[in-house]
Amino acid sequence: EFLSGVSSWADNFIFYIPLDLSAFSVAREKPILRAREETGHIHYFTKNLALKLLKESGYDITGWEYSGASFSGPQMTWKSLLAAVPRRLLRIFGRDLAVRLLGGESLFVFARPLKR
Question: Which of 34-38, 59-63, 84-88, 89-93 has the lowest mean pLDDT?
Answer without folding.
Answer: 84-88
